[in-house]
Amino acid sequence: MSISLSSLFEKMGKFAATNRRLVFIGFIVLIFISLYGAMSITMYSGMDTYIQKDSKMYQDLENYNDKFSQESIVIMVEGANVLDPGALKAAERLETMMVNVSGVDSVFSPATIVKATNMQVTGRNEIPSTVEEVQDLVALNPAVYEQIVYDDTHALILISYGNLSEDQKADILTATKDAANFSGFPPGYNLIITGNAALSQDMNVEMSSSMGILLALAVLLMVVALTFVFKGVRWRLLPLAVVIIGLIYTFGFMGIAQLNMTMVSIAAFPILIGLGIDYAIQFHNRMEEELKRCTTRGEAVVSTFKYTGPAVLSALFVTCISFISLLTSSIPMIQDFGKLLIVGCVSCYLAALFFGIVVLYYFDKFSEKIAKKEMETGKKSFWSKIFSPLPKYKNETDVVCIDASAENGAGTGIKHGTEAGTETGTETVNESNVITSALNKIIDFTLRHKKTIFMVAIVTGALGFYADSTIPAETDFKTYMPQDMPALIDFYHMNTVMGGDEAINIMIETSDISSPVVLKWMDEFGTYQTANQMYVLGADSLASVVKEYNGGVIPDTNEEVRAIYEQIPDSVMEQYSYGNSMMLLNLNIGSAMNDLPMDGVKTLVAIIQEEIVWHQLPPGTTATITGSSVPYTELLTSLLSGRVQQTLLGIVLVFFALIILYKDVYKAVGPVVTIGLVIGWSGLVMYAFNIVYTPMTAVMGCMILGSGSEYSILLMERFYEEKAHGYSPTEAMRTAVTNTGIALVVSGTTTIFGFLALTASAFGIISSFGLVTVINMLMTLLASFVIFPPLMLSLDKLKEKGLKQTLGDFKNALPLKSNKKTEMI
Length: 825
Known about the structure:
The chain is α+β, with helices and mostly antiparallel strands. The protein contains 30 helices and ten strands. It has helices spanning 3-18, 20-38, 56-67, 85-99, 110-122, 131-140, 142-145, 166-182, 196-229, 238-257, 265-293, 297-324, 332-377, 434-448, 450-468, 486-498, 516-532, 542-549, 558-565, 570-576, 592-595, 598-614, 631-662, 665-688, 700-724, 729-756, 764-786, 788-801, 803-813, 820-824, and strands at residues 71-78, 104-108, 149-151, 154-161, 190-194, 502-509, 538-541, 577-578, 582-590, 622-626. The strands form two sheets. Strands 1, 2, 3, 4 and 5 form a five-stranded antiparallel β-sheet that branches. α1 (3-18) crosses α2 and α24 (665-688) runs antiparallel to α25. The chain is elongated. 46% of the residues are buried.
């Protein structure tokens, strides 16, 4: 690192050591502020989490929703005869109760249409008293009733509302359930409250409750990991406590900045726990190391700040740079995910740097007091089991840490090897330590077989990138939910009975909605699509309603059309027209959203768009394809192509960030090549486990960049630090692996245990993400110790010899053809 940065961290260390009480109290106060901010966080799953608000598709959808569509709670009525006067009067009572609920715009049921038709025929706005009278009214306008009455035993009641908050929607859903209970349907009738709105709310509730459980399980598993893996240090669970504080700060920022919690956000917290654990363990491990060497605790604090602070900051910087690529996504929830990761990483770093080191200072000080008291009294206390004193090195007189007057890194006085009685590292290598022993064996193996390792890694990485290109994407969020969730079961039941009600909606904008030319075009286009497109089951519009009222034909004059409009109920006119300039044509695609893969739906939309052009709209008329089904096709494109662009951009950003940071192309190549191989292997994992791309797995490449670059940078920093102390490249790398590597194994293992908790989620999108991440973290650790060390040593050798000399050596090693003239001589 640069001299200025090292000096800056030394000054920060002196400030923290001198003002440790202020630092401690300040971070505690921040916890309470963050907890207050976190209270305003809400779970959100609206359409604007999938599509940019300033995109044409979103604006078209908003225009459609404002003029023709509203969010609705759907009540499916099942019974012997849904047109029975008793059932219709119960529906009328339910309608009366719901129209008075705050936020409800309208209630539409069979009773609504029967009363309106009866008013036109008899002048009485009431439900007839006999089934025969009701059936006579239905026979007058069967197409109108078919919208919500599917057969004799099934009908729908639609409760619509506008743009409301999640709390207001929840209140309306609760009121709907109460109204259904008090509506008094005859015995044998069953009411199922379902639909996208109810399903979305139930999903938000389920995700909110499951997130707390998953985070608690993740913390529990991490406690287990730290207990059994992070050995040889005191207070091994402290890093987890420090990370939790960092997460509290992150939650507080989310609330204050009004970032919504989405299903993708849930994945951020295990990632942050993993990265934060690594930061905390790095500082914890180094602080313990410096406490053994230094004369005073204050010197240990300054030394830890000076040497570990810049190294971890470098890793943090590159990690955040890799996450910046997420901000380029066209999916808002992934953008928020990137922001959350960046803020969370910074929060965890600051908590580990200041709060974690200061707490270690106080813990060590308290341990010394307990030890002195026990020596004076000769009695062991309970607290000594928790606060045990740290044994100093035997040759403690040779140890001096930070010389305040030292400049340019000289005079630090940290002696490596001799004071610890070892030849290969900055601390005594405990041969009984399983991790250290394993790392020594791994480094020996990789250095002996590096050519074979490189070849296997490159081939498998290339295969992975190819396999990745064949992996499909899934944008139907119902497939992500727990399949036994009651709201989802009801939703599927409704689709089974009704045959699916998804539609591709076409907004027709014209100068006069009573134009017979436009109505005939809509009728012909809808008929053509129904006859020629397999998945278009039917078409309905104002044209079909006009035909129902006019004996199956569309009039030839505007005046005749207007006369028919006057006979059509206002509620029906509002479904198909807005003002005098816009109409709606609905192409019913039934359950195609469930039956077809999303790329099939995207193809269908594209074909319909081409058909509109081919059929030539009347002059002065425009058509816009929109509706709730269409945006998911855009989401498919974003997941398949957008994730590749994000990953490539992330790799480029990390490479140039390393160039800027180190001003050394060799130091940039090592981490980037290592991470690139892991990204390729990730494609193999997803292909092998048949896991598709979702908004969560789509960020996998950037996540690997973030964690993988951190591991490589920390190893590289320690490698060059040891080289600067006079070690040969091989011994410097061995020292880096066996010392920094221990902390990486501990943090990596802890992170893996945290992600294991996600595999227990009932949400498929979360459990599959957890499984892939666990395997990817294992591969990241593997690459850090198997690929990176020999690669970095090769690059370091290339750097020292120079590129020209290396090429010359390679040329000399090639078999040269004999010179025939020379042979003749």
